UniProtKB/TrEMBL annotation:
It is an enzyme of class 4 (lyase). GO terms for molecular function: DNA (6-4) photolyase activity. Pfam families: DPRP (PF04244). Its EC number is 4.1.99.13. This is (6-4) photolyase. Keywords: Lyase. Transmembrane segments: none annotated. The gene is phrB_1. SUPFAM superfamilies: Cryptochrome/photolyase FAD-binding domain.
Length: 514
């Protein structure tokens, strides 16, 4: 039997900064010790955007301080600590031995890679579920079992019922429909500007981390200056409240819109804070429902937002843990093309790409349509190797952890899972970008043209994608109309589009920008 005074050790990861984390709840501040460690391995297994490292290290340091204020004993290993082993398994073993801890407590990780490494540690282990998600790994597996096809919409409806969100008393959906997606696609009127999100100035802790990251991660792509994200629970709450007051009402209408110089529009920008544990999912859902019931926001905004939280977010989390590790290897189209250099620099004449990549490098942020329909769409059409585009998304976005990034990129963006996650590839020509943004007017390419040097590259690449995957995709009912269009196309035009796309792809293969 273990003596009552023998401490147990609890590892808190950089994306587990929640007071109600299962492992913290299971431990005793009078007896046990919590460990947080900044390690080179986590900071560099992909070239994370410098602001992502700043956010995580600063939020970890703020959380350690808050835990101490709540009476916990905390061991905090800074990146520059002399005996830092620079891996989380290394730190767990070092501190377990040093403290003579009887057991080490963990909360399920956000990445398969790290969980495997920690489970292999030769220490007595106790694992806890991550209850910050509404649907556990096991509950998702039960929901998926026996279904021929998984569809987010079905999962989302079951979650709405289970969580009793936006329902009438009889359990039917408010407004008579489960999904108001069709009311989420307005393009932005010229006179309307976004609700710029709350910004937070850097305190001494953040300033020290900024200096560290500037020195130690100088080779990572992305801007160090201008970091203004929340790094503690109070700031994250401030960002959320700002969105409830100024963003949510218009989010419903314009969540798919894109505009020049408008990196945020009516998006909340809370995903990074939520994913590292600074916000509570249940509270967010309840706040959104309250805003609707008090008449402060329309239903298409409330429903659209809640769909992101309990629909897509929980769905991709479930799929990740259901299908890893083999999911990461899928490549249905057999894509091999390397990621073009301009994804790391933004140096391209395609205005929509330059804007989306430019703001990504500057802010570590782009909203979901920019990710899906601009940078993602281009990677899909150009046949980029899934592993390379997945690594890019994981590195450059502040909210990217593999549980959310991989299904979104490999499944939704690249359709590399053959339609397991989404029912069709989200391929689109320049016409979609023209409809949903004002970028085309400032582009060096002509969106109305598909052939010739000045033609928008998305156009010929779109048809090339459909032609080269005709066998796999033509039977998909959701693409039937598109393939009818292709079948009715004049053969000479078809050949010309193919050749134009081949020229563009050859330029990519030669390392040129477009
Ligand atoms: C992303 C990240 C970074 C950059 N650094 C650390 C770190 O030094 N220490 C830590 O505990 N966690 C870090 N993280 C987050 C982990 O990589 C994260 O827990 C996994 O990505 C799983 O989601």
């Amino acid at each position: 039997m273990v003596a009552a005074s023998t401490p147990r050790l609890g590892l808190i990861l950089g994306d587990q900064l929640s007071f109600d984390l299962s492992s913290i709840q299971a431990l005793d501040p009078q007896r046990d010790i919590l460990l947080l460690a900044e390690v080179q391995e986590e900071a560099s297994y992909v070239p994370h955007h410098p602001q992502k490292i700043i956010m995580i290290f600063s939020a970890m340091r703020h959380f350690a301080k808050a835990l101490r204020e709540h009476g916990w004993q905390v061991i905090y290993v800074e990146l520059d600590a002399s005996s830092n082993t620079h891996s989380l398994p290394g730190e767990v073993q070092r501190w377990q031995a040093e403290l003579g801890a009887s057991e080490v407590h963990f909360t399920e990780c956000g990445e398969w890679r790290l969980e495997q490494a920690l489970r292999s540690c030769p220490v007595a282990q106790v694992w806890h579920p991550d209850r910050r998600f509404l649907c556990s790994r096991q509950a998702f597996a039960r929901w998926a079992a026996g279904r021929e096809q998984l569809r987010m919409e079905q999962f989302y409806r079951s979650m709405r019922k289970r969580c009793r969100l936006l329902l009438e008393d009889d359990g039917s959906p408010l407004g008579g429909a489960w999904n108001f997606d069709r009311d989420n696609r307005k393009s932005l009127p010229r006179t309307l500007r976004g609700a710029f999100p709350a910004r937070f100035s850097q305190d001494a802790i953040t300033q020290a981390v900024v200096a560290l990251v500037r020195e130690r991660f100088a080779s990572h792509y992305g801007k160090v200056d201008g970091f203004d994200y929340p790094v503690d629970h109070a700031q994250a709450q401030g960002l959320w409240q700002h969105f409830l007051d100024f963003g949510l009402a218009a989010f419903g209408d314009y969540q798919d819109a894109m505009a020049e110089g408008e990196p945020f529009l009516f998006h909340s920008r809370i995903s990074a804070a939520l994913n590292i544990g600074l916000l509570d999912l249940r509270q967010l859902c309840s706040d959104v429902e309250t805003a609707y019931r008090q008449g402060r926001v329309p239903l298409n905004a409330a429903e659209g937002y809640i769909r992101q939280l309990i629909g897509w977010r929980e769905y991709v989390h479930g799929i990740y843990w259901l299908r890893m590790p083999e999911y990461a290897e899928l490549n249905t189209f057999g894509n091999q093309r390397p990621l073009p250099e301009f994804y790391w620099t933004g140096n391209t004449g395609m205005r929509c790409m330059a804007q989306a990549i430019g703001q990504t490098l500057e802010l570590g942020y782009a909203h979901h349509i920019q990710r899906l329909m601009i940078t993602g769409n281009f990677a899909l059409l150009a046949g980029i190797a899934p592993a390379q585009i997945c690594e890019w998304y994981l590195a450059v976005y502040l909210d990217a952890f593999e549980w959310v990034e991989l299904p979104n990129t490999l499944g939704m963006v690249m359709h590399a899972d053959g339609g397991y996650l989404g029912s069709k590839p989200y391929c689109a020509s320049g016409r979609y970008i023209q409809r949903m943004s004002d970028h085309c007017g400032n582009c060096v390419y002509q969106v109305e043209q598909s052939l010739g040097e000045q033609a928008c590259p998305f156009n010929a690449l779109y048809w090339h994608f459909l032609m080269r995957h005709e066998q796999q995709l033509a039977l998909n009912p959701r693409l039937a109309q598109v393939y009818r269009g292709l079948a009715g196309m004049d053969p000479q035009r078809r050949e010309a589009l193919w050749q134009r796309a081949e020229t563009l792809l050859a330029r990519l293969d030669a390392g040129e920008t477009l």
